[in-house]
Amino acid sequence: MSFPILTCIVFAPLAGSMLILFTPKKNVNLIKVIATLATAAALCLSVLLLIKFNYSSPAMQFEEKAAWIPSINAWYHLGADGISVGLIFLTTLLSFLACIGSSGIKIRQKEYFFLYLLLSTGMLGTFTGLDMVLFYMFWEIVLVPMYFLIGIWGGQRKEYAAIKFFIYTLAGSVFMLLGILALYFTSTPHTFDILELTKTGGALTLSVQILIFIAFYLGFAVKVPVFPFHTWLPDAHVEAPTPISVLLAGVLLKMGGYGFFRISFPILKDAAHYFILPFAILGMINIIYGALVAMAQTDFKKMVAYSSVSHMGFVMLGLASMTATGFNGALLEMFNHGIITAGMFFLVGVLYDRAHTRELDKFGGLGVKMPVYAGMLSVFALASLGLPGLSGFISEFMSLLGTYPTFKLITIISSLGLIITAGYFLYMLQRILLGPVNEKWSAISDINKRELLTLIPLLIIVVIIGIYPLSALKYQIAAISALVQNLGGIAF
Amino acid sequence: MVKFAHLIPIFPFLAFAILILFGRKLKRSSAIISIAASLISLLIVILTFHGLLKGQGSYKLFDWLVFNGITLRVGVIVDPLTCTMLLVVATIGSLIQVYSIGYMSDDPRFSRFFAYMSLFMASMLGLLLADNFVTLYMFWEGVGLCSYLLISFWFEKASAAKAGMKAFITTRIGDAGLLLGIFLLFFSTHDLSFSGLSAITGHPALYTTAALLIFCGAIGKSAQFPLHVWLPDAMEGPTPVSALIHAATMVAAGVYLVARCFALFFTHQPALVCVAYIGAITAIMAASIATVNNDIKRVLAYSTISQLGLMMIGLGVGGYSASTFHLVTHAFFKALLFLCAGSIIHSVHTQEINKMGGIFHKMKITGTAFIIASLAISGVPPFSGFWSKDEIMTEILRSGHPMIFIAATITNLLTAFYMFRLIFLVLFGKPRSELHPHESPKTMAIPLIILSIFAIFMGLPGSPLMNNVFQRFIYFGAEHTALSSNPDHFVMGISVIVAFLGIGIAYALYMLNKEILSKSIRNRFTGLYDLVYNKYYVDELYEFLFIRPCARLSKAFSGFDLKVIDGAVNASASMVVFLSKAKAWIDSNIVDGTVNMIARAVGMLSGELRKMQTGYIQSYLLTAFMGLILILLLKIIGG
Amino acid sequence: MIPQNHFLILSAILFAIGIFGVLTRKNAIGILMSIELILNAANINLITFNKFQKTPDGLGQIFALFVIAIAAVSAVIGLALVISIYRNAKTILVTKINLMKW
Amino acid sequence: MSFIETFQFILPEVILLVFALAILVCSLLMRSKGLLGALALTAVVLASLFLPRVNTTHASLFFNMLTDDAFSTFFKVICLFITGVIILISMGYKTLQSGHIGEYYFLLLSATIAMLLAVSSNNLIMIYISLEMLSLASYILVGFFKHDDLSSEGALKYFIFGALSTGIMLYGISLIYGVFGTMDLSAIANTLKTAPTNALISSVLLLFILAGLSFKCALVPFHMWAPDAYQGAPTSISAFISVGPKAVGFAVLLRIFTRNFLPLYADCVTIIMLVSVFTMTIGNIIAISQTNIKRMLAYSSIAQAGYILIGFVVGTASGTEGALYYIFAYTLMNLGAFGCIVLISNSIRSDNIEDYAGLSKKDPVSAFMLAVFLLSLAGIPPLAGFFGKFMVFAAAIGSKFIFLAVAGALNSVIAVYYYVKVIKYMYLDEPKATEMKKNPAPLQIALIIIMIGVLIAGIYPSPFLNWIRLSQVFFLQ
């Protein structure tokens, strides 16, 4: 058996958290070092994974399979393919960067980093687990640390936001659990293996598929989040501390989209076809509605949070397309949105750390006082509004392009979202950076080196994918075309 | 030497990268880097041009994007149209950057300015070289971005910040159309390259729609009606920016786009006619606004819109060569006009023409250049504008659109009028406020001189005097070359008459008259004047029709989100809590009540039990017992 | 010979009275007594069924003895608890014993 | 089977009895009562050492009054484990230490003997007697703080409720004897197999028995004693009655219904399903508004019984397996939770949830353990409670009880709210100034072991599942 790279990636943070558990509370520096090393180890391994990944093959790679609960035929089964490899990298990268960005945490550091690393493991496990039970377990493991991370280190309404997040996502995921069980019992022989189910799932009758699809949908839609299940998101994002907002928006939302890619669509093919119109409509609503609501926000962070709702609409739209282009767009949009929004939340954090307010109207003219910050903010805002040449564009473009032949009107309306998005991001830039200098912030300092360090890797990725999208697309193309073929979608 | 064409945009981009990273250390030398990069690009452009003349052409570079089955292979397009445009852009760009050294010398963000300028050069050159819709779209947005950045370059001014946003969003509306047009084309032809356009056949309605959607992009970028509102506001940017981006190059990209897709438009005449009429409306409307506006740059901005409209007319009537020819000449004289305006503003620190006057003798070079450019745009022979406008007029007449011909003629009349209104009010007469005009520094003056030379002579390649070299170089199809070779003396005559008429009216109204604009005339046409002066109320209309509803919708949705959706969820949560309380309450009250009731029922059997009081344990027991009874009943009834 | 059903009806009446008593007596002692009635109803049943079996195995009788013994123990414990409650609450009326609710 | 041979099967009970009497005597003779707990613990350990090994055949003892099979062994292990932990909790429970502690342990061991007998009973008489023995010991234990208003009130309510329920059950048993002419479960099963009797009458009789057992398991509508008894009882006894009688109740339910009365049972499925749904829902919903943690856990354990009942309703092999696993997991986590409450109440002298504010800072270990146990009760992976829910939901869906599974799923969402509320107080709120006392080491260590058990049973449940499967394979024959 070869080196179990995925196991190492998934459990490196957990090992770190166990170490932290036995580190004295007072020794904050050691705790930080352990956390950073653990996430860095996972990052290095995932880079290695990217290097060794054979992207011309649609098959599952680096598979690890060991008996786990034989009596119910559940296996410890990990693997990575083109769909998950990017998200694994995204998770490790953001975990690492957000870990560096966590130095602003001033209280209860031991607990913080312990939970933080636990969260990392949960997220990574979700993206690698190929057994439903394992997948569900990791999926749920994410909830608890997140609850604490928002609830303890969050903002003013942290308790409300934390419990809301918890209940909301749990409510979604219990239905997913029922869906998993239903899949298990409808398969012969009974299995939880996602790959096996992908082969056999199509044999189910449409009505059964639809029921199971809805069960999974409830779980995933809350995470994505899809209108009208999105209201936990602004609260959670706004109240969470910066690094956690980064992970929330950067990784957690992707878990829902990933679920669609990994489970709902490949296994429940007929139901997926049955539901593409609602998907497209919901995607459109997400895009337009999210953008319009974002426009009305006066709180910087809330605006970015709603922009996530809007952007995740493109994922839904791309999924609805049933075309390789749309799928590629949707998957890439998840990655890109992860990178860009992570950057945006870091930038919100930078500003909040200095000004202790996020009210957009209270700023103005910061472009003079914080030129580097202004540049960074502009680039990420532009990437977010889909400026060609930066990464956000290409994925939104492909989503829309893929959806166009199936849903013309919806695509047209959705592309209006691009205009609204441009509107609120530029309005945000105008209110923060442009205009006359607000004297209140005359002493504000520009972004510092550590903060830059967290942003620059993201910036580089944004630019590279924007200029040469194949650099990211190449990992997923083979897997996506296999998926489309499997689904009987349009392969262009 | 064509094979280096793809390097053209790279040098300015490198300059941008260097300046954005190390700009603060470089300070003044930023300009040198930026200009050097432009000059290197210019050199390569010349080499490419040379190669093109030798018969080399477009080539492919690498796979850029793969949709399943279809690989998008990007390359560069090297043909007469692109090469000419490249030459124009690189030349004017370099000159304006030199000019900017003087103009921007006091600015604290000097190097940032040059960084943006370099980025713009890179994007614009890339746009011209793009050989497919996707890369074109990328650079298209890239120039839009630079436009945004440079319009709001002095972002401390709230108006500048707003203008930038307005420009970006307005053009983006057009871009959304362009994007959809690209989708439509892609799904009909499965091809995104320009070279495939000429092969399109069938589905006329579909392709006409596609063409119109693409034209939407052009409308936004070239500030055509109804998306023209952003360009006048864009004048908030530094004047070199207005000259380069909002006069000479970027705004012409819309015209370039239509020219680039001319094969599609030409085979789908309804779209082409639409182009012509949009152009005509724009031309005459903008020209009329220009006649009453009092801001020197805004007058020029409306003039630009009007001239772009003229180019659209040219394309719309099938005058491919004529239109591109006007594009080239216009680029030079309009850039020159802006630079002159910039020079004047730089020295008198105001843009209000009402406050200027009689500065010609203090600024001879600028003044002369201004006059040359005005003559060129007014269509006075033998300046460049005369030849190119004449070509367009000829094409209009030949195509048989009398309405458009009349509109174009009126536009020309108005053009001559407002240009000379400017000249008379700004350069001549008496100063109307305290002014201390002085000639601008050499870095600013030299580009003026060079551009003046272009403004005078650029018309010659397209004139019969030089045997219509231009038309023989850039043409669409074969027959056009032959057609446009013969000078049409009727049209020439009308053009000349119209030009001089316009100048004459301006002279009569503004030089002979003591007042700026005689009250009597203004009073007679109050309604019309107000309409024109307020730019036909288009901005207000948009505000009323789109912006406010959008804002209201946004607010409404936000409220909806907060109250209704969240409210619903919270309500169900509180329902649970309520239920919980209710259950607890039921436990303590209803159960008791039931107990009372049943106790009474039992009490009817024996009157003794009436006074029975229930205690809590017994209520528990009763619940349990009644539960059991219920279960038994269910069992017995249900079988 | 008294038919089996008569015994069973007697036991059912006893059972019902017992339940009624448990549900209605205010006094804890009264409740204890009612419970005894229920147990005795069961005892009558047991003995009746035993008696009317084709080949009586005595099981019912034995069981009835057990029940009587257990009922005695139960009564002892019940009384002990009542005393305990009386010490604390100075009452043995179950309607007054409601410290814990909701 | 000779008496000696029979004797080896009841050796654990005998050991417990001997030690119980010994404790009673010692408590009269000895001054220091500290050793009594240790003595009781020794008894439990010895008893578990002498438990009959998992056997391949079952043994009928005392004229088939008792039967000894893998199923009963499973529950015996659970029961002895429960008593062992309860003894540890009691030893660490400050309020409990008084002159009467000897009687306390005596009663506890007697209750344990009753539990061991009950789970292996194969005759309705035996079931009645052992359950009554268990109940009687429990009544006294609940009222052990005899000078405490709440304790004696709880005990009285528990007693009256229990007496009525067992009375009803006894009446049911007497009728069953009339219908079948025997009280031996195997004999009744044989009769049912060969000659179908009037299903209606039999199932009605069955429901009488269900009533008695529902009281033990605190199922709706026989649940109302539970909150009062839990709240009033010493916390160690709350812990005991929340798991011990409940496990026994389910063991008997399973033995009677699933094994022996299967044909009759099929008729009652709908009703039991309703009972299950109501039990979960009512327990969970009322728990939300509780402010006393013991009372909250009482409602919580009512709800948990509803989940166990899902496995029981399904009635298939996987259903039974799920129910058994759930009982196992529930025992671990509920004991753990009560243990933590004892630890905490030693210092803060309160059972109010609000007084738990900021506990994570004052007593991080207890707070952490309580959080883990509560999350496990809420069914969050990777803890044992999750896997329990997983198993019962799986069984329900596998047998097309979709409604039941959905109800269970919805309930587990509601439940999260009140479990997390406690965690919120402990972790998110600021502490009030209270000095924490040093925790008794044996209890703390025991709880840590249980916590690790909860984790392992959730992450790698295979060994436990195998054990359970072995326990019920024979049982379902």
Kindly list the characteristics that best describe this protein.
heterotetramer, B: 639 residues, mainly alpha, two-stranded antiparallel sheet, 2 strands, globular, C: 102 residues, Helix Hairpins, 3 helices
Describe the structure in your own words.
The complex is a heterotetramer of chains A (492), B (639), C (102) and D (477). By secondary structure, chain A is mainly alpha-helical. Chain A has helices at 5-21, 28-52, 82-100, 109-128, 132-141, 143-153, 158-186, 194-200, 206-223, 232-239, 242-267, 269-274, 276-296, 300-321, 324-355, 366-369, 371-384, 391-403, 408-432, 449-467, 470-487, and strands at residues 61-69, 74-80. Chain A has a domain at 275-492. Chain A has a two-stranded antiparallel ribbon. The longest helix of chain A has 32 residues, at 324-355. The model of chain A has no long low-confidence stretch (mean pLDDT 87). Chain B is mainly α and 639 residues long. Chain B folds into two domains: 2-492, no CATH class; 539-626. Chain B contains 25 helices and two strands. Chain B has a two-stranded antiparallel sheet with strand order 1-2. Chain B starts with 9 loop residues before the first helix and ends with a helix. Chain C is mainly α and 102 residues long. Chain C has helices at 4-24, 28-51, 59-89. The longest helix of chain C is centred in the C-terminal third of the chain and has 31 residues, at 59-89. The termini of chain C are far apart. The relative contact order of chain C is 0.13. The mean pLDDT of chain C is 87. Helices cover 78% and strands 1% of the residues of chain D. Chain D contains 20 helices and two strands. Chain D is globular, with a radius of gyration of 21 Å. The chains are: A mainly alpha (492), B mainly alpha (639), C mainly alpha (102), D mainly alpha (477). The interface between A and B is large, with 62 and 56 residues.
List the helices and strands and how they pair.
The complex is a heterotetramer of chains A (492), B (639), C (102) and D (477).
Chain A: H1 5-21, H2 28-52, E1 61-69, E2 74-80, H3 82-100, H4 109-128, H5 132-141, H6 143-153, H7 158-186, H8 194-200, H9 206-223, H10 232-239, H11 242-267, H12 269-274, H13 276-296, H14 300-321, H15 324-355, H16 366-369, H17 371-384, H18 391-403, H19 408-432, H20 449-467, H21 470-487
Antiparallel strand pairs in A: 1-2
Chain B: H1 10-26, H2 29-53, E1 59-67, E2 70-76, H3 80-103, H4 110-129, H5 133-151, H6 158-189, H7 204-221, H8 230-233, H9 239-248, H10 253-260, H11 262-267, H12 269-292, H13 296-316, H14 320-348, H15 364-378, H16 384-399, H17 402-426, H18 442-457, H19 469-473, H20 479-483, H21 489-511, H22 519-524, H23 526-533, H24 538-605, H25 616-638
Antiparallel strand pairs in B: 1-2
Helix pairs in contact in B: 1-2, 1-4, 2-3, 2-4, 3-4, 3-9, 3-14, 3-18, 4-5, 5-6, 5-9, 6-7, 7-10, 7-12, 9-14, 12-13, 12-17, 13-14, 13-16, 13-17, 14-15, 14-16, 14-18, 15-17, 15-18, 16-21, 17-21, 24-25
Chain D: H1 3-9, H2 11-29, H3 34-49, E1 59-61, E2 66-68, H4 70-91, H5 101-120, H6 124-142, H7 149-180, H8 185-194, H9 199-217, H10 225-232, H11 235-260, H12 262-288, H13 293-314, H14 317-348, H15 359-362, H16 364-378, H17 384-398, H18 402-428, H19 441-459, H20 462-473
Antiparallel strand pairs in D: 1-2
Helix pairs in contact in D: 2-3, 2-5, 3-4, 3-5, 4-5, 4-11, 4-14, 4-20, 5-6, 5-11, 6-7, 6-11, 7-9, 7-10, 9-11, 9-12, 10-11, 10-13, 11-12, 11-13, 11-14, 12-13, 12-18, 13-14, 13-17, 13-18, 14-16, 14-17, 14-19, 14-20, 16-18, 16-19, 17-18, 17-19
